[in-house]
Amino acid sequence: MRWNKAQNELYSRLADCLKKRVIYDIDIDKYTDTHIHGFRIIVDGETWFENNEDLWENKVVEYGSQHTKPPFNDFMWLTLEASNYGVLMTAKEIGLINLHCIYDIVQKYLNIYKIDKCLNHDNYIFRVLAVLDHRTGRRKIKQLLENIDNEPIWFRKYIRLRAKAQNIYID
User: Fold this and answer.
1) Closest to 145 measured CA to CA, from 123, 166, 129
2) Deepest of 47, 152, 163, 167, by most Cβ within 10 A of its Cβ?
3) For 4-61, what is each residue's pLDDT tens digit?
4) CA-to-CA distance for 29 and 48, rounded, in angstroms?
5) Angle value at C-alpha 154, between 84 and 68, nearest 5 degrees
């Protein structure tokens, strides 16, 4: 699936209450339409999630230097990126993921996984997409809201956004 088709499919899965508020901005190579340079989720004109090649490298190095005892060399970073654990923990802790993984995540979200699997997935990018999805009902949003303290801070705003849009949650 090409990115422009995937982007259209992501829009079609947005909850109706979010359709005019949320934008999936995918920066793709204009010649191939398969290589991604950046991925953003914009809510009410403000960037809530941004990932691009430079941001990934800078944040991962910053995150690694704060959370590891020995300094990481290039080989160690490649090993961390390649490991499922490293990718999942980075996404969970700082809300960022390697761009090379985004395409696979979006494809699995759109074509393979059911919404319940996405909502309970270890990878929070699946969860973000699922919380914004029209197939996630009010009851599930209420459950997520009740357990919001167990979620990373960066992810909580997506739950609140959806809950407010459906008049489930008020500040």
Assistant:
1) 166
2) 163
3) 788 889 999 999 999 999 998 877 666 655 566 778 899 999 988 877 666 555 555 5
4) 23
5) 50
Q: What pLDDT does residue 72 have?
A: 44
| pTM summary value | 0.76
Q: d(Cα 169, Cα 162) in Å, to the nearest integer? A: 9
What pLDDT score was predicted for residue 124?
84
Q: Length of the chain, please? A: 171
What Cα–Cα distance (Å) separates residue 149 from each residue in 100, 145, 158?
30, 8, 13
* 137 pLDDT above the threshold of 90: yes
119/131 Cα distance (integer angstroms) = 7
Q: Which residue type is seen at 25?
A: D
Please report, rounded to a whole number, the percentage of residues in the chain having pLDDT higher than 90. Answer: 40
Cα–Cα distance for residue pair 108/150, rounded to 1 Å: 25
As a whole number of Å, the end-to-end CA separation of the chain is: 40
Distance separating alpha carbons of residues 131 and 52, to the nearest angstrom = 22
The residue with tokens 């090649």 is 53
Match 């339409």 to its residue by tokens: 33
